[in-house]
Amino acid sequence: MKQRFLGLLLALCLLLPAGLASADNVSVQRISGEDRYQTAIQISKNSYAKSNYAIIASGENYADALVGGTLSVQIKAPLYLTKKDSLPEGLKEELERIHPEEIYLIGGVEAISSDLEDELSKDFTIKRVSGKDRQKTAEKVVELRYLINKGSEDAFKKDEQLTNFLVNGYKFPDSISAAPLVGRMVGKEIFAALCLEENNDKYPDAYIIGGEESVKGESDKRISGPNRFITSLEVAKEYEKNFDGFSTVIIVNGEDYPDALSASALSAMENAPILLSKKDSIDESVLSYIKSKAKKVMIVGGEMSVSQLVEKDIFYDSESNYFYAEELIKSKGISRDNLNLTGNEREDILGLFLDEMGMLELSETFSEEKSENIIGKDNLPKEMTTAESKRIAAIISTTSLEIEDILGIYEDGDDKVKSSIDIIATAINGEKTEEAEFILNSNDENVYSKLENAFNSSKLFLDNATFKAGVKAVSEGLTTGFNIKSISKNDFDPENTIIYGHSDISHAKQLIALLKSEGIEVNIELEPKTSAFVYLLEWGPIPEPTDSYEVVKISDDLYIANALEYDLLLEFVNGEDKDKFDDLINKYAKKNSDNPEGKNLLVSSWWQPLYTSRTEMQKGYGKLIDNSAKLDDYEFHTFSFKEDSDKLIKGLEKIDPDLEINTIDIWADDAFIRYLNGESE
Predict the structure, then answer these.
(1) Which of 513, 523, 519 lies closest to 493, judged by CA?
(2) Whole-angstrom Cα Rg for the chain
(3) Cα separation of 384 and 407, whole Å?
(4) Which terminus of the chain has fewer CB atoms gathered within 10 Å of its CB, N or C?
(5) What is the pLDDT of residues 329-355, one digit of tens each?
(6) Using one digit for the tens of pLDDT, what is the confidence trace for 421-432?
């Protein structure tokens, strides 16, 4: 069986073209934040090292921001969004970073309050640009743009070179794509104005962007298509005609406006038109145009705005090997969707397999040297990318495949790829089982799926006297949280055992695979547990309860969250391997201020991971007390420093005299010790 799987992976790698990107060699970059306000800030960070000007508009309505987009494009300035009465988190710091000489507030006091203007005026020079309504505000923006371009307002009303573009000010889509065109159409001989109108009565000679349903009136200067998406395409063609082409396009969601509001600031720096897409698909005509014109696509907004399905359409068509592999894996029950597409077909197919196994993030922890050692330096063809070598090494490390059988992996032969993918998918699926086991060895067959099945079969431990005692302890202020689990009956040697706590079972799978890739064997016991802790209402609305998480109201000022988590007991072969664990976690499973996003770490890595030993550890650990209480088949645990333990124990004794209470010296990792001391990392 092992040799057969090896041959199949070899066949897959042999037949995929080396270093293949998408057919049209298009790269894709996504810029997004957690909401519209943070997306605007991320665009600024991505594109502006400094700017003489900054633009701020309301993020709670679209009209002012969209006409502000023309100003952003003209003067190449970032465009930020704000709430009426308060700046979003991080905006003040970003303004200080770019250090603008002047900030333009677009809109009246109903959009951006005078109090907020006064606050900004303490640190910056502010100019408000507004009229009595959105149309008048648009006119004021045009006047400002004209002044900046011509240097004088005197000629504004009589200038014969003024070219008006009309969009409907009450429908956002056409304005989004119009802003880059209008904003760049400035110079000595021409000046374009964006006007928010619902008909062309006032400007009979104007260009109209959008169909009859958007802006009414007869005109031979209408730029439109049968829908908003094709209209954005027609505007892009006009952009191309006026500005001698482009190599970058920007894609935004054309069905909702939030992330699109600040896209003009990106267009200003990228010389790029803005095209509209649905969340999960892009019009075929728009897609064809992108592939024929662009070398780079920049998506503004997260997956909820423009999903990865649009990226897939840009990179791959329905005849591609990637598309075939994806459909095949989905038919077998794909488990997650973490893969960020690269356009390198071989890399992305290997990523699909790792994603299906739940090991995608693991591959990113592999160094180039480690990957080369697993594959064998003599077996590395010059065409292999570093990312591919990491993914191949991770697949080999987590399956029954062997390294020495993977040779000559870059031979041509596309006609054989699909049959190889069929069998590879079967091989990957063969690493799974429906069995659930709580005690395993890292070298056991199907160890990962057995572990995952065991956790998924577990439930919250709530209906028992030990748990109720823990809740009472939290209510009385003795502790802010505790763990409860079934009493362990394993016979692991404490001298060689680490207890590692987490909530994501995929993290446990990747951790075991990481240890295996480092040549470390462990016995494993999975101990599901309920973590109960104080829930602060400032964290947000109370979520709906699930089988693995719920928030319970204890009193008017106390809520407790109950989460299904686990302890992973890892018994090492010897103390030397146990001592290596701390360095591995700090390197591959711990976020910090230099890596807050957890790049190249195991999935769901924490800022303060928690792992303990019941025997003394030296470097990397500190001493704590494990305060435990047992009743029936469950045990309660909460960790504290020595000086806090006595009060806790006395309090537990009063809560329930039947509790079997004990204290044990434990050694916890330094990151958790720092957490208990109130440090952020």
Answers:
(1) 523
(2) 30
(3) 12
(4) N
(5) 877 665 445 678 888 888 898 888 888
(6) 777 677 777 788
